[in-house]
Design a protein that fits this description.
Largest sheet: 7 strands, parallel
Distance between the termini: 37 Å
CATH topology of the domain at 2-180 and 233-261: Rossmann fold
Strand order of the largest sheet: 3-2-1-4-5-6-11
CATH superfamily of the domain at 2-180 and 233-261: NAD(P)-binding Rossmann-like Domain
Strand content: 15-25%
Bound molecules: nicotinamide-adenine-dinucleotide, uridine-5'-diphosphate-4-deoxy-4-fluoro-alpha-D-galactose
Helix content: 25-40%
Radius of gyration: 19 Å
CATH class of the domain at 2-180 and 233-261: Alpha Beta
Number of helices: 11
Length: 340
């Protein structure tokens, strides 16, 4: 298939491009590079042994996006492009709604103009809000606690409405839990801007000496050791889930959501221990107050994805921490070179 990957230069997108190409698909990337570096795609080409057609295009720009559809035959779209920092979304809601929601509307309009109705969308476990229990299945009630989460929820609803209005639309909504890890080569990985908000990149930057110590947000949750529990999933497993979702599109599944997680939760302290084992580094840490908006425990019921997509995560916490460290250790400054 010829697959258009929006946001393909980013963290999850770049790993997915590799898995798509190794499954025999042709990949066309559009990305405005607002949160990524073109070097990531060069490395994707090295790893895949194939070139990637890249367009530096903003998905909000209908004309530029149309030109991509005009010059290429596109069978399906995997839509990663979006802004994803929760705190930033609280400070800049308009920017988040415009980029994420308007960007998706423009994308869908252009897709329909060119007769493309197959779409895999990057949703998030954040759409479950504060879940009443764990594990979380796809039928749980949906809610949002910040503009980023609300943008995902709005997009899910828009995509479901598109399917209701016209059954040619097949939007697959993939709800990711906590993506971590990197390609085992250490050539591509997560390259956050500024001080990371997320746990794993924060830990790797402490390990490499860029940050002094980790603050563990809360030690009094009702969890195994008082720290927050999440369902960390290796980004390569996640990328393979997208290939399975793409295959599912041939069955015209309509609007359907799948959890992509491992089904197993780890506490912050368990992640620190696993990372220390994998890296032979000590991660200095201190307990601080809970981070507002955090939930105690969040992990997936993954049975629907297994049943419907034939997909199951295979990499455990040791591979996740090993590969996160390998990437950070080989690329202390991410994709930015010393000379830049
Ligand atoms: P990322 O920032 O590394 O990748 C997103 C890419 O989209 C970047 O390369 C960015 O430059 C590009 N982009 C943003 N706005 C664009 C626009 N208007 N036009 C064109 N390109 C644009 O993030 P990621 O971690 O790879 O996440 C990919 C998707 O998965 C996002 O939609 C994100 O919300 C979602 N998601 C991520 C996580 C996570 O923890 N990483 C969890 C759940 C869902
Ligand atoms: N944590 C710390 N210290 C830190 C960072 C995080 O203790 O410096 C803790 C958090 O309190 C939480 C766990 O580590 O218990 C994971 O936190 P992350 O920030 O890595 O991830 P979240 O679960 O908060 O959120 C992530 C993405 C969201 C997405 C959500 C569900 O950042 O965008 O997963 O997919 F919506």
């Amino acid at each position: 298939m010829n697959v258009l990957v929006t946001g393909g230069a980013g963290y999850i997108g770049s790993h997915t491009c590799i898995e798509l190409m190794s499954a025999g698909h042709e990949v066309i990337v559009v990305d405005n590079l607002s949160n990524s570096h073109p070097e990531s795609l060069k490395r994707v080409e090295v790893l895949a042994g194939k070139s990637v057609l890249f367009y530096e295009v903003d998905i909000c720009d209908a004309d530029a996006l149309s030109a991509v559809f005009e010059t290429n035959t596109i069978d399906a779209v995997i839509h990663f492009a979006g802004l994803k920092a929760v705190g930033e979304s609280v400070a800049q809601p308009g920017r988040y709604y415009h980029n994420n929601v308007t960007g998706t509307l423009v994308l869908c309009e252009v897709m329909a103009n060119y007769g493309v109705y197959d779409l895999v969308f990057s949703s998030s476990a954040t759409v479950y809000g504060d879940p009443a229990s764990v594990p979380i299945n796809e039928q749980f009630p949906l809610s949002a606690t910040n503009p980023y989460g609300r943008s995902k929820l709005m997009i899910e609803e828009i995509l479901r409405d598109l399917h209701v209005s016209d059954h040619r639309w097949n939007p697959i909504l993939l709800r990711y839990f906590n993506p971590v890890g990197a390609h085992h080569s250490g050539l591509i990985g997560e390259d956050p801007n500024g001080v990371p908000n997320n746990l794993m990149p924060y830990i790797t930057q402490v390990a490499i000496g860029k940050l002094k110590q980790l603050s563990v947000y809360g030690n009094d949750y009702d969890t195994v050791d008082g720290s927050g529990v999440r369902d960390y999933i290796h980004v390569v497993d996640l990328a393979q889930g997208h290939v399975k979702a793409l295959e599912k599109l041939s069955e015209n599944p309509g609007a359907v959501a799948y959890n992509l997680g491992t089904g197993r939760g780890y506490s912050v302290l368990e992640v620190i221990s696993a990372f220390e084992r994998a890296s032979s580094k000590t991660i200095p840490h201190q307990f601080v107050d809970r981070r507002p908006g955090d939930v105690a425990s969040c992990y997936a019921d993954t049975s629907f994805a297994l049943q419907e997509l034939g997909w199951k995560a295979s990499k455990g916490i040791d591979e996740m921490t090993r590969d996160s460290w390998n990437w950070q250790n080989k690329n202390p400054n991410g994709f930015v070179f010393e000379s830049e």
